[in-house]
SEC-C domain-containing protein (Streptomyces tibetensis), 339 residues
Amino acid sequence: MRPDTPAENVDHTAEAARLERTAGLYPEDAEALLLRAAAHLELSGDRPTATTLYDRLLSSPDGLENPHLVRALKASNLWEYGHEAEARAIIEGVRGASPKDPAPWVIVAESLESHDELEAAHETFTEAVHRLLTDVEEPPYATHPLLFGRHRVRRMLGKSHDEWDALADSVHSLPITLDELHDPKRVWSLGSENPAELEAEILRLRAELGAYREALSRPFPVAILHWPADELTELLEAYPSLSTEYPSHGEHLASIEHSLRELSSSGTPNLGIVTGTVPSYEAFAASELSSPTDATLLPQYATTLAARGRAVAWPPQSGAACWCGSGRSYGECHGTLTA
């Protein structure tokens, strides 16, 4: 399914089945693919089968990249079809584990919020921002939903603004303020007979829709292909003709950073990096009935890896590890390069 496919035109059951088949072909990407399959099952209304997929992931003998995310999604799904006690127990487990990834926090807090557990949702959002954003100079994009969710719940609870609300305002980029978007009285505007009030509400809803579309676009980034040094050596030994694409590993890394900065400066959103391996690339070439020596396959391979959930967002935060694998922070490594 393309990311711009209208929801009403999607056969969610068929899409889930397709993703499950793809996960069988690419077991290294099974976690990302099966999570998307479970999401389609939830949208189709088949929540019990979605739970089965979450259980399948959690029982994986190879472990998971983000088990807390899977547990959070399972809890949210369970609560939606009547398994409240089990959902609450899982949510408490996720909170107790204190994951470093903001996504599980967002999911469990929003699950509490959607079931009118506003105080518990507020506590969860607040705990998350304290753990993940204390002494952080610039909140990473992935943490913005924590700030926005906390702001929204506080407005519903009638709490006054604090420093975290001010931070949420500072990273909010839409023309309508968070206070307007999260105004508890907005619901009354929908029943108004005043054209001005209705028009104002339509503008607010359009702004919210724009934010949702931006968020939904992020799993499908414009991705640049990165080869670690040992993989690039193996690639060029097997297919020397590709040396025209990759004169040296240093030039390859510099080219990635330069290309991403150019795309960013041109206004291209949602940029990412995917890391290739020679066996994976050879399998992709075979699936395309082509030879790995065909350089035109390289961007297609990058796009395929991104669609399978393998992309890492660029740029990293200045203090985060550099994408190149040097072990240094991005600010000390490729983040210092001049554009």
The longest strand covers residues 222-226. Confidence is low (pLDDT under 50) at residues 1-6.
